[in-house]
Amino acid sequence: MIFLNTMHASVSPGITFLFVGLLVLMIIALALEEKLHAHKSVITGVTAVVALLLGQVTGIFTDVESHGSHLPFYVKFIDWGVIAIILGSSIFIDITSKSGIFSWLAIKLTKMTKGDPFKLLIYYSLMTVVFSALLNNVTAMLIIGSLTVVSLSSLKKMNLLLGFLLCEGLLTNIGGLLTLISSVPNIIIGNTAGISYASFFIISFPYVVIATIGTIYLAGKLFKIPSLKTEVDKAEAALLIENFDEHEGVESKSFFKLGWFVFIIFILVLAMTDLIPYIKELGIGFVAMAFGILMLIKIRSKTETTYKAIDWDLLFFFGFLFVVIGVMEHAKVLDLVGNGVIQLMKIGDTGGPIALLWASAAASSVTDNIPLAAMLAKTMSGLPEFAQNFWWAIIYGANLGGNITPIGSASTVVAVTIIFKNNLKLSFVGFIIKAAPFALFHLVLASGYVYLIGLIHS
Question: 65-97: per-residue pLDDT in tens?
Fold first, then answer.
């Protein structure tokens, strides 16, 4: 068995700041991921190796003891529950999507708009939020973005594509606030704070609804996405939209029906995990893995196709990141971060959470919000009891910061990538300028909402 003593080894300030420097270099490298031409897993992997070597040289691991186990002590640093959730959900979604249920739904909704651009924006925006909440931000953006290109191209409205894609990219981070597993920061912070799936949904739902409506309204106005006015325009659009075939992506009717059935059951079981005997002790990670394995039975002779589709870079990124965070804990780096959090908390239960929200958003806008969420969750878990809205401040800040810059979240990176692929121009500064009104609206609304959560839980 491997465990950590409650009394950590004595660490000098010089050693602590040495590891602070290493952490800062990792965060900068993650922010410059594309320019470095290096995947996240490579950046965190190199950092983990260097951190462990430095840890041994500086003697910060003298408080780690091993009894009766051949596993390296740093394996203990990894949160395997988070790994299970991501791996299981990735397998499940990849196989389920092959049934055609997602493309069917998207095309069906497109035809329901009868070719009206603003109605199309509403439908795609709502679908973006739902897909981001039930799947993940990147998958949602890839699906919705590609379908948007097809729809606007068919409707001969490609001049509206930039506005659509930006709106959808921003809404992926709004939808990512709806459930506990909608985004990685939610998983990390929610698990640390002990927030259940059902509680997370109940608290976040009102904010997501208001933020979605406001975002759609702003997008329509700022990007000049009109509704069809004349009967001639409506008739022409209706004729074009008839060429869409929602059954084109459905290869097997039986698989299509199975996909819908299992997908609905999957969502229901996730929502009620805390209420189901035996399952509640195993957790959400078990549920995700169980349903992933269940769907593997469907393609039992072709599992290699799904294994190739899994984002292994993301999984290794998490594993290495947890190792880095574990090392930083022993180097007392988290103590420094904790002192900063404590200073914000001293502002009070009213101003403290709001200050923490904006600080988290600013930090996540220029770097990956995953290391930020992991660091703050780890730090706050070791602090004395505090108001519940401090946890929510980090959740909203880490997610909404992704709407400030094009590197703030993986989904906005995908949105910008689709924009470039369609020969549309949008610079780094240009993104910030166009996204600024939305980000300001989201953060101001979140500030008021976090304040309200504080009043309710006080």
Answer: 555 567 788 888 887 877 888 788 888 888 888
- pLDDT tens track for 48-68: 999 999 999 988 887 665 555
Q: Please answer whether residues 71 and 2 qualify as being in contact, where contact means their C-beta atoms are separated by less than 8 angstroms.
A: yes
Do 244 and 111 contact (CB within 8 A), yes or no?
A: yes
Burial 151-187 (b: 16+ CB within 10 A, else e): bbebbebeebbbbbbbbbbbbbbbbbbbbbbbbbbbb
Q: What is the phi/psi pair of residue 64, to 5°?
A: -90, 125
The pLDDT tens digits for 287-320 are: 889 999 999 998 888 888 888 888 788 788 888 9
Write the CB contacts of 445 (distance below 8 Å, at least 6 apart in sequence): 207, 210, 211, 214
Helix ranges (H only) for 177-252 are: 184-193, 197-222, 231-241
Tokens 């610079």 found at: 427
Task: Tell me if 31 sits within 8 A of 24, measured CB to CB.
Answer: no
* pLDDT 10s digits, 14-25: 898 999 899 889
What are the distances in angstroms from CA 9 to CA 21, 52, 266, 434?
A: 20, 15, 45, 49
Alpha carbons 171 and 382: distance in angstroms, whole number = 33
Query: How many other CB atoms are there within 10 angstroms of residue 451's CB atom?
Result: 17
Question: Rounded to whole angstroms, how far apart are CA atoms 449 and 291?
Answer: 34
Closest CA to 286 of 267, 273, 275, 299: 273
- Reduce the DSSP state of residue 350 to 3 states and report it: coil
Which residues, 6+ apart, have CB-to-CB distance to 2 below 8 Å? Answer: 64, 65, 66, 67, 69, 71, 73, 75, 76
DSSP 244: -
pTM of the model: 0.70
Query: Domain segments of the chain: what residues?
Result: 2-77+312-457, 81-309
